[in-house]
Amino acid sequence: MNAIEYQIDEKNNIIFVNEEWDRFAMDNYGEGITSDKIIGKNLFDFIANITVKQIYLDLIAKVRKGNVLLIDFRCDATTCKRFLQLTMKIENRNIVKFTSKAKEILSQDYLNILAPTIIRSKELISMCSWCKKIKVETEWEELEHAINKYNLLNQMLPPSLTHTKCEECYEQVNSFIKPF
Ligand SMILES: [Zn+2]
To answer: What is the dihedral of CA 73, 137, 163, 168, to 10 degrees?
Structure first.
């Protein structure tokens, strides 16, 4: 996997994505977020969760002050675990550049819960959008543990997912937002 890159202008409108973005978007999400659908749109049109939105606003503000941020996150597909690192930095004239590089990619057995287009049950579970942990009752569990423990693979229909942030990732990202 090559580095995935996109850039936003001072109004947070998406002004550039590289070829790898389109390849990644098609492979993982279908046609919905390929370059022709997102160039010129506001980044925040694509972030539904209000907490995640606020975090991105804070991170972008930090970057616009000249800080370079490195954030580890996980972005699995149905058959692979992907550990990525996001770099956020300012380019010329207040343009913020987001670059995601793979640190480690491992194969895993097919996980229907991660399929982008699939019929799901009405059961709703929370997934951390940064580390892919799943919240079961009050605890955040590693994806692999949660799947085994709660027998998610053997359900006829996988549950629906709502993407939010676990406390640990919230803390990690918050530590970037605090004044340096
Ligand atoms: Zn997390």
So the answer is: -30
CB of 173 closer than 8 Å to CB of 164: no
pTM of the model: 0.84
Token pair for residue 54?
A: 């606020």
Evaluate whether 146 touches 134 at the Cβ level (below 8 Å): yes
Predicted local confidence at residue 179, as pLDDT: 56
Please tell me the distance between residue 149's alpha carbon and the centre of ligand 1 in angstroms.
18
Q: What is the mean pLDDT of the chain?
A: 89
Helix H segments across the chain? 19-29, 35-38, 50-64, 143-149, 167-177
Ligand 1 center to residue 163 CA distance, Å?
10
Provide CATH code, domain 4-111+166-177.
Answer: 3.30.450.20
Q: Say how many Å lie between the CA of residue 83 and the centre of ligand 1.
A: 13
Q: In what order do the strands lie in the sheet with 124-128?
A: 139-141, 134-136, 124-128, 160-164
Residues in the chain: 180
Taking only the tens place, the pLDDT of each residue in 132-176 is 999 988 899 999 888 887 777 777 788 888 888 899 998 888 787
